[in-house]
């Protein structure tokens, strides 16, 4: 198999860390994961440009659409999930509402409360961005056989469980 950027990185830096323990495999893994993450960020940006969405608009629509109650949430729940202040969420929702991608309405159980619902236009633009991202992800995964993809997922899950403290 030919060398990739991670191999070249390890070769270039191996002799620079005389006073630090340097594990070639750990460094190569880290560089490869960062390269995949960079690729996925780039494909997201391409999808956003093509759909006319801004990052925060996509992230908010995405959080709204992937809930247990798809397309419905309280502003507070969205703010918490996205790690933004309530005031910041109000600004986001104002912009999404202006675009016609969400609507606010009184809560079903408590009319003093406000709920957010994605509109047909919001779902359509989000689905288009997801389709573009999905195509790019499929193209990346096509470099692997099905068996390799299953193995990679098993290994990545093991890393994620470690990060999650399980």
Structure, described:
With 166 residues, this protein is mainly alpha-helical. The protein has a single domain (5-163), classed as Arc Repressor Mutant, subunit A (Orthogonal Bundle). The chain contains seven helices and three strands. A three-stranded antiparallel β-sheet has the order 1-3-2. Strand 2 and strand 3 (114-118) form a beta hairpin. It is elongated, with a radius of gyration of 21 Å.
Task: Looking at this protein, list some descriptive labels.
166 residues, mainly alpha, elongated
Sequence-ordered SSE layout with sheet pairings:
Elements: H1 5-13, H2 24-51, H3 55-65, E1 72-73, H4 75-82, H5 86-99, E2 102-106, E3 114-118, H6 120-141, H7 146-163
Antiparallel strand pairs: 1-3, 2-3
Helix pairs in contact: 1-2, 2-6, 3-6, 4-5
How far do the termini sit from each other?
A: 35 Å
Helix content: 55-70%
CATH superfamily: Winged helix-like DNA-binding domain superfamily/Winged helix DNA-binding domain
Mean pLDDT: 92
CATH topology description: Arc Repressor Mutant, subunit A
% residues in beta strands: 5-15%
Q: Outline the low-pLDDT stretches.
A: none
Order of helices and strands: HHHEHHEEHH
* Gross CATH architecture: Orthogonal Bundle
H/I helix tally: 7
Largest sheet: 3 strands, antiparallel
Number of domains: 1
Estimated radius of gyration: 21 Å
Name of the level-1 CATH class: Mainly Alpha
- How are the strands ordered across the major sheet? 1-3-2
Number of distinct beta strands: 3
Which class of secondary structure composition applies to the elements? mainly alpha
Shape: elongated
């Amino acid at each position: 198999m030919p060398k990739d950027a991670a191999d070249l990185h390890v070769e270039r830096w191996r002799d620079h860390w005389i006073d630090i323990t340097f594990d070639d495999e750990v460094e190569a893994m880290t560089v490869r994961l960062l390269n995949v993450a960079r690729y996925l960020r780039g494909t997201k940006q391409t999808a956003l440009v093509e759909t006319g969405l801004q990052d925060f608009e996509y992230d908010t629509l995405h959080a709204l659409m992937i809930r247990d109650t798809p397309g419905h949430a309280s502003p507070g729940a969205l703010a918490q999930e996205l790690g933004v202040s309530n005031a910041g969420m109000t600004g986001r929702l104002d912009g999404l509402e202006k675009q016609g991608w969400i609507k606010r309405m009184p809560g079903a159980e408590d009319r003093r409360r406000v709920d957010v619902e994605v509109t047909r236009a919001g779902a359509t633009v989000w689905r288009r961005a997801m389709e573009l991202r999905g195509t790019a992800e499929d193209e990346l995964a096509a470099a692997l056989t099905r068996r390799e993809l299953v193995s990679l997922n098993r290994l990545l899950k093991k890393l994620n469980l470690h990060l999650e403290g399980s």
